[in-house]
Amino acid sequence: MWNRIQQKLSSHSFRNKVIITSVICLVIPAIITLFITSYLTKDAMKEQAMSNANRELKLAGEYVNKFFEDMLYAVNYVQLDSEISSILKKNAKNDKQLIDQEEEYESYLENRKVSMLIENITLLGEKSYVTILLKNGEHYTNYPVSDYNPKKLFEEPWFKDLDRVFGYESIWIGSQPTVFKSEQATNPYQISVARPLRDANLKIYGYVVVTIMEEKVKQAFESLPGKEEMMLVDSSYKILSHINNEKIGTTFTYKDEVQKPGSTNIIETSDENYLYASHPISYTGWTLVSVNPYKQAIFKINSIFHKVFIGQFISFVIFFLLLTYVLQTMTKPLVHLGKVATTVQKGDLNVRSNIQSKDEIGQLSNSFDQMLDRINEMIREITETQDRKRKAELSMLQAQINPHFLFNVLNSIRMKVMRKGDYESAEMISSLSKLLRMTIDKDKGIITFKEEIDIVTDYVQLMNMRQREKVEFEVNVTDAAYLEVIPRFILQPIIENSIIHGLNQSAGKIKLEAFVRKNDFYIMIEDNGVGMDEATLTNFEKRLTNNSELVHVQNKSGFSSIGIANVFERMCMTFGNAFQMEVRSEKGKGTKITMSVFKGRLKS
């Protein structure tokens, strides 16, 4: 995969590679971050939605609990108040037909006192209907009998269950059709709590029933800010209270889903998922439940996430455009440098990038411009070197003694001289012939050091025959040095300079030494002539590097008239920086010239 990406990137420019790489390095982390955020936010949204649902259920539960606590308070008050209990127990035993007028009046006062107490215990809370029904049919209510006859309670199906209730236990009667005529038009359902009244022997002497309208419970659902569907259900998930009266008495739609083992708070259906929450109601065994479409439950949180996502996306686009602009600005010098390189490739070496920045690109541009300057300088140097080489070869060619005619004539003279017995003159003519033969052979630009020694030996013999005083020529060369190759006529100009200027054509000694040490080639030529003072030596060293010496040499009277400067120039052209020449001289003590070729510096 990485190789495939590299192949695709290789066809693009450097700027595009940088931009694409930057985009990849930004987009991939951004996508991963958004994915992780979405994944984590999904759970967070679910938890937050559950938290919101539970909070709203808790608020509704507190509101509903308040109703039921008031109802239970009324029941407990009737059961626990000693005065009411004594009156009720007494009236449950009395027979109204047997009491006299005085007892009837006393009974009236007691009954009035009970009615007043019933009225008082229901004043503080929500409106509720309290019914105290004795075994003998006598009853006490806070509502008129014309509204509802309490004796009808004996006919209710749940009434028989009161005989199995003891102590402070109560029976909670879920939503039933309202029995009070004054409420039936506006409140179709009612909710009640009932408890038997027992004496010390646990015998039932009466019953107390407290009733409120289901509409009061429904108000708790309507007052909440959420839009979820909230309801009150009993232990069998029968709906006791709902905003929609038609659903009261029916079974909770998702009963099976919430009762499954391991069920979660998400109800999954074929159409839509719903968020389910529940809150138990104290004392009753009932439960407040809420059902809300999951998308609606997380709508606000999801909306915030979408806004954050859009904000991040806009920020990313702005940052991407800014990054692209910055990268284009930063890589613009590189693009310009690439165009300059293309122009140079086409052969224009005078173009320059002229990038003035001080960063790495500026340094690269400066190095590139300097390289072009150096190339132009090297081309100029090579051109000048070739020109000098051509002039040197021309000068050397002019110095050669041609043609073959002269060589043949000399050879004929030598034979005649030998026939007359003048062997010394014949030898002199033979040495001269060898020198002439070397000058005629143009193909031998590079010869072995052995051949160069032979040339310079013949040259010294010729010079000794010309002079009255002979020069002693001592040669000390190793076998390895004989095999080295050098340009021809390298030693002759130096020997000539020693005989004519160093020894002033008088008797003297010239010593030639050559050897190879650590693969480096050394040549030393030393005479015991007049030498040079410091000023003359300095002037001589300057002439070595003066190009004019190639043609206008110091001495014209010698055999080759090439000069030491010519030797230095040709050795430099042959060996380059590997060649060095050193001149040492002292007035009255002679001159020593050392030539060295350091082969380790030679370019392969």
UniProtKB/TrEMBL annotation:
Species whose genome carries this gene: Metabacillus halosaccharovorans
Pfam family, one: HATPase_c
Major location category of this protein: membrane
Transmembrane feature ranges: 18-40, 308-327
Database matches in SUPFAM superfamilies: ATPase domain of HSP90 chaperone/DNA topoisomerase II/histidine kinase, HAMP domain-like
Sections of the chain in a coiled coil: 368-395
UniProt-listed InterPro entries: Bact_2-comp_sensor_kinase, dCache_1, HAMP_dom, HATPase_C_sf, HATPase_dom, Sig_transdc_His_kin_internal
GO molecular function per UniProt: kinase activity
Protein name (Swiss-Prot/TrEMBL): Sensor histidine kinase
Domain (HAMP) ranges: 328-380
Keyword hit for Transmembrane helix: yes
Family matches, as PROSITE patterns: HAMP
Subcellular location: Cell membrane
Recorded topology in the membrane: Multi-pass membrane protein
Sorted UniProt keywords: Cell membrane, Coiled coil, Kinase, Membrane, Phosphoprotein, Transferase, Transmembrane, Transmembrane helix
